[in-house]
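Working notes for the structural subgroup meeting. M.R. asked for a predicted model of this chain before we commit to crystallization trials. I am recording the input and output together here so anyone reviewing the notebook later can reproduce the run.

Input as submitted:
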Amino acid sequence: MKLRVFASRCTFVALVLLAACSKVTQENFAKIQDGMSEQEVQALLGKPGESSNITVLGLSGTSSRWVADDGSIAVQFVNGKVRAKSFERRPAK
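Returned structure, recorded in token form:
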């Protein structure tokens, strides 16, 4: 029983630490530059929570979004390179 309680507490602490280490920050948003590859952005932010693709006339486009408690970062890629980005801060409760 004590081992189960300890394991539950360790899991809770690990989840809290992961949430506190969110990569969706204004500082990381500022590091995203036009022309960066999708791989470079994922190295900075991790895998996106949402992503959609489209191909038109030989151009491929991807719209990806990373969401955290404090806000979200959206990045649009054309042929695998950053072309637009936005940061949305969630209102304080």
